[in-house]
Amino acid sequence: xxxxxxIDWKTFxxxxxxxxxxxxxxxxxxxxxxxxxxxxxxxxxxxxxxxxCGGVMNAWTEIIVQLWVxxxxxxxxxxxxxxxxxxxxxxxxxxxxxxxGTVKIxxxxxxFDTRQMFPNEMIVSENALTVDLRPDAVQCKAIGxxxxxxxxxxxxxxxxxxxxxxxxxxxxxxxxPAEACCTPGGGCC
Length: 189
Fold this sequence. Notes:
The protein has 3 helices and 7 strands; from the N terminus they run H-E-E-E-E-H-E-E-E-H. By secondary structure, the chain is of the alpha/beta class. The protein has a domain at 9-128. The protein has a 7-stranded mixed sheet with strand order 2-1-7-6-5-4-3. Strand 1 (23-29) and strand 2 (32-33) form a beta hairpin. The longest helix has 14 residues, at 81-94. InterPro entries: DUF6428. It holds the Pfam family DUF6428.
């Protein structure tokens, strides 16, 4: 599976701002659009901190736009981009969204398990702005840094942090025999 280049919140929002008069559609699979009766139920900002298999700490932020289609509700056209922007405005008055956050769209229905997907492309047509969604892909950050993942031919973990051998410390017995103890005038102090 090809890795999708993530769209940040600023780019996503700027594209919406350029097309506020168009219908906003989401394509969740080839030739399948989210039902026009959808609602944007919430926008989440998720700061993520992780440690990968190579022992490296990673941090990023995701902005997740959740879509919901109420059962039995009928509608001919999707909401206008301008209406979506009014929801964004309500959210951003209470929760400033990180402009560098990675955008994901969360959606599911009776035929499509709920998942978070990346906007792959934002397609402008005569009357609609269609956000083409593609699934997220699992990746190994260690491989992305030029390392590898898994174990070597000896069964050792190859992307774990290197184990540094600690120097051995010479222990001294502080409970020395009585004759070695300092005595007044013995010259040891």
